[in-house]
Amino acid sequence: MNKTNATSIESSRIAQSIGLTLDRFIKNNQDQFQYASGELSQLLRDIALASKVVNREVNKAGLIDIMGAMGTQNMAGDNQQKLDVLANIRFTRALAKGGEVCALVSEEAESFVDLNNEGKYVIAIDPLDGSSNIDVNVSIGTIFSIYRRKTQTGTPLQSIDILQKGSEQVAAGYVLYGSSTMMVYTTGHGVNGFTYEPSLGEYFLSHPDLKMPEDGKIYSINEGSSNSFSNAIRDYIQYCKDQNYTARYIGSLVADFHRNMLKGGIYIYPITSKDPHGKLRLMYECNALAFIAEQAGGKASNGHNRILDIELKELHQRTAFYVGSKNMVTKAETFK
Ligand code: AHG
Ligand code: MN
Ligand code: MN
């Protein structure tokens, strides 16, 4: 047997033992979606494809010159890393080529990008989340939210198309570039997770119908910022210690969220004296994870109100973020 044959037999053996590909899963479940015309399915495939390209680049970081800072800042004043910029280009290009998305909101761009096409969807994306972890080989991610445009295609885009509440999302997901690469998403019918098999270049269903434990013992908060937390947050941290909870904080929201989703836990990024409106962005960080959390039986709030009900006033709006196991978030909210 020649080497090519052996490789393809091995590949099909892996495919059979692992099972359902992301492509097939999307196709099988297309009818669940109320506008089942196939465009949302194609859009999810475009995202998956771009994520494979980003995954390849993430894996090469250190070997080629893509680590480190660009020497520029994005509109939020964060230092842009080369991979942030590269990931933004990869996702923007894939979504522009796909034609299903008419407008794109990205952490890396000050205003939304009008793709000047007939696409019915609007996407908000954090192309690379956890960028301070790139240079130190720690898990990073991509977060995305998908909305239907409200106005007719072919007419100029309006702010009601762009500034939609999280409850209007039709799909949301994240990609975690971790010890393995995963894509987790929801279209409002539960949450499913897919693990990337690099030798086949395919995502396979590995975590069907994900459910977040209702309780947990992990708390994730940047305790180094305690001096700028409110008394309520400090009291809650003390409560976690009294309960003998475990502290885990990676500093990549996607990775902290994913761990808590599988194991049970709470992630909090509260308002601080430095960031009086919170640090995390509602449109392309919190809304997607809030939608996924709720679909998995978890909960997400700003400490008082449901994240998905918060009105959007500006693209880069920030919020406090409490997300995770339902009972833990409910408990944290009682600390005033
Ligand atoms: P990004 O890399 O997209 O700017 O996001 C970083 C976010 C989030 O991933 C993480 O949980 C949080 O910032 C960490 O902030 P602190 O370093 O202030 O804890
Ligand atoms: Mn981020
Ligand atoms: Mn980012």
Q: What would your notes on this structure say?
A:
By secondary structure, this protein is of the alpha+beta class. The chain has two domains: 3-207, Fructose-1,6-Bisphosphatase, Chain A, domain 1, CATH 3.30.540.10; 218-333, D-Maltodextrin-Binding Protein, domain 2 (3-Layer(aba) Sandwich). 33% of the residues lie in helices and 24% in strands. It contains nine helices and 17 strands. It has helices at 3-18, 22-28, 39-60, 82-98, 159-162, 231-242, 253-263, 282-295, 326-333; strands spanning 69-73, 79-81, 101-106, 113-114, 121-129, 140-148, 171-177, 181-186, 191-197, 202-207, 218-220, 246-247, 266-269, 280-281, 299-301, 318-319, 321-324. An eight-stranded mixed β-sheet has the order 4-3-5-6-7-8-9-10, sandwiched between helices. Strands 12-11-13-17-15 form a five-stranded mixed β-sheet, sandwiched between helices. It has a two-stranded antiparallel ribbon with strand order 1-2. Strand 11 (218-220), helix 6 and strand 12 (246-247) form a beta-alpha-beta unit. The protein is globular and about 55 Å long. The termini are far apart. The structure holds 2,5-anhydro-1,6-di-O-phosphono-D-glucitol and manganese (II) ion (MN) (2 copies).
